[in-house]
Amino acid sequence: MWVLAGIVVIAGGFLLRFNPLLVIIVSALVTGFAAGLDPVRIVATFGHAFNETRYVTAIYMVLPVIGLLERRGLQARARTLVAGFRGATAGRLLTGYLLFRQVTAALGLTSVAGPAQTVRPLVAPMAEAAAERQGGAPEDAERVKAMAAATDTVGLFFGEDIFLAVGSILLMKGVLEGYGIMLEPFQLSIWAIPTAIAAFVIHGSRLWWLDRRLSREGRGAR
Amino acid sequence: MIGLNLVYAVAGIAFAIFALLSVRDRRFANAAFYALITLSFLFGDMLGDVANGVLVLALVGIAASGQMRRAEAVAPAEDRHGAKVFVPALVIPAVALLGTLAFKQVPALVDPKQATLVALTLGTVIALVLCGILLRARAAEPFVAGRGLIDDIGWVAVMPQMLASLGAVFALAGVGEVVGELIGAVIPAGSVIGGVLAYALGMALFTIVMGNAFAAFPVMAAAVGVPILIRQMGADPAVVAAVGMLAGFCGTLMTPMAANFNLLPAALLGLRDKYAVIRAQVPTALPLLAFNILLLYGMIA
How does pLDDT run across B154-166, given as a tens digit for each residue? Predict the structure, then answer.
């Protein structure tokens, strides 16, 4: 039971706004001590896992390209482009991106898009430009950008499990095999389809509402 | 064979240049932070577990010192290259896509498990070269600009990796088994809806706590999924596993513990509220969680 103290440390530490990295390491130490591990073993376990998961942080290698393009007018250009499409709204643009993200993720292409690769340089500025044109208030910019990031994540999560060789499918197969239940990845991935459709409908409706809200504000302002 | 070694070499070099540029500008805390990340990328496999752990402690120390500084504001750029500026931006996803498909054909040359990451790395390098040719950028220019972006992200950059590592300590300490026992104990015997609710909400809640549905799945499968839903109620294992995992993903949308999906984009987009992305996701996550519960219930009852 005492090993749950680490979870209390995490929740309390985040709530009290201590530095999250500090909270994480303290939680690891508290959990380890509660389980009777010695400090060196805890630090070594943490270090080993940190070294094994470096691929998570490797994505920042794209920052020099993105940074340069931004200083050379990438976002300004993205706005100009959207301004040229007459029917483009923030909601329609993000709905199109949601579909693109779900379909590419379902084909196993999860790293093709993402917050660093596509959202910051392309999707967010385009959606923001469209929202401005719809007459959204300046404070909506933050909401639209957050929605762009949310759309990327929803598209990824509820697309990737349709692909056969994704990590979560292999994990499920492996865990169930431990109980003597044999499944083919195909049987699991087919059951990701209903939720993928539901995700598109639910998030798509919210994007439609976003459009309505933006144009209502636009009319109110005039 | 080409695999993560190439990915880590390129990432390590990028962080090494960020560190050098920070030293030049006398931003020593930032420089030390990036230098440690460089060390981890380039030499992490030679360090050993304890030294890697000490490296993490040093990263945390620098972050907690409050000495890391944000980037100086840059005037917004004007549109002076026309559509040409899109080319390098689109080259990265295009090469990642085509490269993934191509590299799977040559498993002897490129590690098939890492095909996308290798292709993404290749796309980044090609885009960098194109920046020089098409936009006439000087060699240091992209790194100066990229340093500005990483300075704005700050120590949040390593938070996803830190949380993943915390998961390893939780696993070793047996946190999952304890939570599983607690949840397993509250289900009324023989109740399908009780079992489904405990399993799906347990997946979502445990994922919110751990930040990762992968950590929640083995626990909830052991506590509820296999013994109660599959063995006792005769549910199809494929449905229980697949829909349960997706219920967990709904939890991932709602938690700051999943920093790479929820906090990193907010930092990357420079949002004032660092929880803005989570707030934008919750109204999608909750109805979707309800859908998963109904789907699971409908397939069992």
Answer: 898 888 788 878 8
| Claim to verify: residue A37 and residue A79 sit in the same structural domain | no
CB contact under 8 A, A24 and B162: yes
Partner residue opposite A31 with nearest CB, options B82, B88, B169: B169
Query: Are A208 and A127 in the same domain?
Result: yes
- Report, in angstroms and rounded to the nearest whole number, the Rg of chain B calculated over CA atoms: 23
Give residues 143 to 182 of B whose Cβ lies within 8 Å of A.
Answer: 143-150, 153, 155-170, 172-175, 178-179
- For residues A70 and A162, state if they share a domain: yes
Among partner residues A108, A116, A142, which is closest to B272 by beta-carbon distance? Answer: A142
**Three-state DSSP state, B2:** strand
Same domain, B182 and B101: no
Same-domain check for residues A113 and A190: yes
Q: How far is A126 from chain B (nearest CA, A)?
A: 13
Interface check B277 vs A, CB under 8 A: yes
**In chain A, % of residues over pLDDT 70:** 97
Domain match, A96 and A136 both: yes
Residue A66's domain comprises 62-221
| Max Cα-Cα span within chain A | 67
CB contact at 8 A, B124 and B92: yes
Domain assignment of residue B271, given as a range:
174-300
Reported ipTM: 0.84
* Residue A57, in any domain of the structure: no
In a domain, A93, yes or no: yes
Q: How far apart are CA A160 and CA B295, in angstroms?
A: 19
**Where do runs of H (alpha helix) occur along chain A?**
5-15, 20-34, 39-52, 63-71, 74-84, 90-106, 124-134, 140-160, 167-177, 185-190, 193-221
Do B57 and B147 fall into the same domain?
Answer: yes
For residues B12 and B8, give the distance between their C-alpha atoms in angstroms, rounded to a whole number.
6
